Amino acid sequence: MRSTYGTVEASTLDDWPISYEDLEPYYEKAEWEIGVSGGPEPPQKPPRKKPLPMPPLPDSKEHVLLGAAAKRLGLHPFHIPMLRNSVPYNGRGGCMRCRWCVGFACEVDAKNGTHNTVIPRALATGNCELRTNCVVKEVLTNGKGRATGVAYFDQHNHLREQPADVVVIAGSAVESARLLLNSRSLLFPNGIGNRYDWVGRNLQGHAYTGAMGLFNFEVFDDLGPGASIAICDYNHGNPGLVGGALLCNEFIRLPIHFAGMSPPGLPRWGNEHKDYMRKYYRRSSVVMGPVQELPVFEARVQVDPTVGDFWGIPVARLSGHRHPSDIVTAKYIADKAERWLKEAGAIRTWPRLPGSELSGGQHQAGTCRMGNDPHTSVVDRNCRVHDVENLFIADGSVHVTNGGFNPVLTIMANAYRVGEHIAQNWKSV
Ligand code: SF4
Hints:
Elements: H1 2-5, H2 20-35, H3 61-72, E1 78-79, H4 118-124, E2 135-141, E3 147-153, E4 159-163, E5 167-169, H5 172-181, E6 206-214, E7 229-231, E8 247-249, H6 255-258, H7 270-280, E9 284-292, E10 300-308, E11 314-319, H8 324-343, E12 348-352, E13 391-393, H9 408-425
Parallel strand pairs: 5-13
Antiparallel strand pairs: 1-7, 2-3, 3-4, 6-9, 6-12, 7-8, 8-9, 10-11
Helix pairs in contact: 2-9
Bound molecules: iron/sulfur cluster (SF4).
The site of iron/sulfur cluster (SF4) has 13 residues, from loops.
C-alpha cells in the first residue's frame, strides 16, 4: 500500500514484508482444507493457480438482477467465494439455503470454519489436545527473554502453568495485544514485544459502507446465505483516494434485521412502519462493502490499570478514531453502490455510511504489525515476536493493512504459512 500510494499524513500506512506470491500457496491450501465454494471467474488480479474446490451456490434473484446491471455499467461481477459447502464436501453436506445463515449454527453443518474442519482433524491425529473454557493470563518468560509457556485459568478457574517450547498466540487483534501487554516482567516492563511501544497500535477494522435500494418488484428471494455477487472494480484506482472496497449484495436478513433498515424519515413504529415492512421486505436490496482503513498510530488497544475481568486480568481499553480519509472513501463507495442499485431498477436508494468512531470490532486487525524493522513493528515476516525467539502470533493482528475485503482467508492462509515455518524450524529456535 505504501509503495502504491506513498506516505499519507496522519497514517502509519506501510507495505507488508511479504508478497502475494508468498501467501498464494497457502490461500490455496486454506481454500481446499477449510472448504470454499465459488465461481471459476477470478475476482481480481493476481489470479489463483487452482480453481476453488466447490462450484458456486445457485444464483439468487438479486444475483441475476445485480449481475446484469453491473455488466451494463461496465463492471466485472463474480460469484463471492464462500466458506460454505455448495455441495457435499469433506464428509459434510451441502447448503440447503435456509434463512438462518447469520448469527446461528448451520443445521446441516455446511458452514465451514476451523471448528468443523482442521480442529477435529488435528484432534484425530492424537497429537493435539484441546482445552476449552480456559483463559490465558500471561505469556511466561525466563531471564534470557525466552518464552517458557503460559499461565492460564482452567475451566474451574484454577491458575495453572503450561510449559512450552514454542508459544503461538491467535487471539485476534484486541485480545492478542491485550495478552502481550499483560505479559510483563523485568525484561519486558511494558509488555512482551513492546520495547518500542507498537503493541496495540494501528487497530483497524473496516469502515462498512454501501446503500439500500427499494424496488417496485420482488428482488429478494429470502434464501440463504444471501450474499452472492460482488465486484472489485473499486478496490483500487479510485481517483484521489487511497484504496477502496469490494461491493456485494448483503447476507440474508431476518425480518427483525429488516426492521432496522427503514429509509430516512420513516417512523420505526406504527402503521407506516408495518406497511413498509410488508411492502418492501422482498422488494429491497442492500449492497455493502468493507472500506480498507488507513492505519492510525493513535487507534489502539491498551490495558486498563484499574479495571480487571472476572479473573482479575486487566481488561482491554480501546481509544482513537478512524482516519478522515476512510470517511471520504466510504462516501465514494456508497455512491457507487447507489449507482449500481439504480441501474438494477431501484426506485429509491439511500447511503449507509460509517462515522469517524474507532473501528476494530468486526474484522479487527493491525495491533501486532508484521515488519522487518523491530522499531516499527511487533513481529517479523514469519510472525515471530522480534524480541522473543520462540513466541509467534498468527491472527489478524499482524496485518499491516487489512485490505478492502473480509480478512478471514488471509488470516487462515498466513496461519498455514506460520505453522509450516514453525514445523520446519522449531528445533532451532
Ligand atoms: S444458508 Fe447458511 S446456515 Fe443455512 S444451510 Fe446454507 S450454509 Fe447452512
